[in-house]
Amino acid sequence: MTEFGYAGKILTIDLSDGSTASLPSVDYADRFLGGRGMAAKLYWDLVPPQTGALDPDNCLICVTGPVAGFTGLAGCRWQICAKSPAMDPEAFSYANLGDRWGSWLKYAGYDGLVVRGKAAKPVYLFINNDIVEIRDASSLWGQPTFEAADRLKAELGKAVSVLTIGPAAENLVCFATMLTDDGSSGASGLGSVMGSKRLKAIVAAGNKRPRAADPERLSHLAQRVLELRKDTWKNWFVDIPGRTRLRPCYGCVSGCFRKSYQAEGGRRFKFFCQPVHVYWEIPQKYHDDWQAVSLLAIRLCDRYGLDTTVMQPLIAWLSSCYQEGVLREEDTGLPLSRIGSAEFIEELTRKIALREGFGDLLARGTINAAARVGSKAQQLLSASILTRANETRDYDPRLVLTNALFYATEPRRPINQVHELTHALWMWLNWSQGQEDAFLSYDDLRVVAENFWGGAAAADFSTYEGKALAAKKIQDRAYAKESLILCDFLWPIIWVRFAENHTGDPTMESRVLSAITGKEIDQAGLNKIGERIYNLQRAILLRQGRGGRQGDRLMDYLHEEPLQDVFFNPECLVPGQDGEIVSRQGAKIERTDFEKLKSEYYQLRGWEVKSGLPTDTRLRDLELGDVAADLKARDLLR
Ligand code: SF4
User: Which residue's CA is minimally distant from atom 8 of ligand 1?
Assistant: First the structure.
């Protein structure tokens, strides 16, 4: 491993016996870079497949990548991985966070942190350069996230960064989050893994800056990223003028629409991305200042530590159940006739986080709750829930067919993959409707498809042609990106407002990595690392019993119910052959078409087409011989 870009060590802590140790990053970085790749290999090595998500033997793995700690690149993101309680059956899963906590961990001297075991009483970790301490957190247990973080910062100083859980994770709600002191939350129920270990918070600080092999080249690349990304997100997404202001993550090149606002009392809270939508439309019928209620909802979710990507469709499902007479106020103890009010969101979040009454049922996930309520309640899931991890139906695969492969092969909503084609479609839609500032035409989209998705066929959203290849290319690149780790809102640089054909540069990621490590790697080499990491994750999921072809499945309704609308595209318009505008309203994913798509995809991946299992040849070609040997012993290799 290069001496550049990495801190060199991965800290391991066993909360059962209080022991600490470290692993050399070199054992993981060469083949798996960092981020998702490093976490997946640590998980493969350390967590037996039968381990339960809330068992002490499950490992909470926090990792940075080689880009973390270098500013100007939108590369200071970091990941948390573990077996997750969010889906049934439980599975290895992941969360990607922004803010500064990851860089602070690296500045403390660690590329990653592995926490296993279970403390006898509530604790927090204090990691400050060479000081690693497990400290008593009894007085913090039961505290909401904001209060716990503020108390720790008041005690330890503003220079530290704090990751904390709230009551939902302490009470093992299956979709509980963890929250950084600047509002980034980690989803997929991984907060409850932290709660199961009685780990209230992790505090990081340090001053060990990583070095780049070629700082001058890196600086030029950062400047180039800034030029290419100029005004990418101009006029996108909601805002509250006069109330919100930009609040980029640490080390971001230019920011996106990540904002914050000041609430009563002076503390600032987040306002960005999907959380904004958790309670955005419905309060409008109740309040003059409905935006205050929407902001309250985001705050409550973060305060208790509840995943907004689960809460948004959960609220929609409760509303449908109430309207259809499936749930009543007297059965649930919830003011269902006042969905949209402040009173409702306060009651709902508290009941779930503290597992009071009907909230205890909801804390097990919406799909589970619907199964307990009855068949009509289950039928109503399809309007809002897209994954078996209870996540929101925003980027529907009936609209963007390639997304079907992402949802089918991942344990949770793989937002960094579904964004790629969906954002491209969204940009084209704005252009096709003559929206001011829209720039991505159909001709541009074809060039993008040729450069990034394997061919122009991927720009025709009305057929299955070219979609398996596009899926493989997007996934391999996404896994490399998730291991560097570069932010999804700026990377990959696919479309550019101010460039010929509005087409971006697929070589930027590999050039950034080369400048940091001093080891030259090209785009193909980096994508091959992404493919290796993706295959490793496939092996983890197979070893947990997920199944090959039969495990690659979608929610049944996507095959059975016609598409009606999608939040950003109510008429479901897409570019068809030669740019003709067609609507996918009424479309389903026919099962025979889907199985054919999977077959083509398995072939491209070098897996056995019949079973969807990896082959010895392909895994060895990807330098995963050790993984192949393990799968072979379990009859999961072809
Ligand atoms: S683009 Fe937005 S989310 Fe990404 S690192 Fe920058 S501020 Fe954070």
Answer: 249
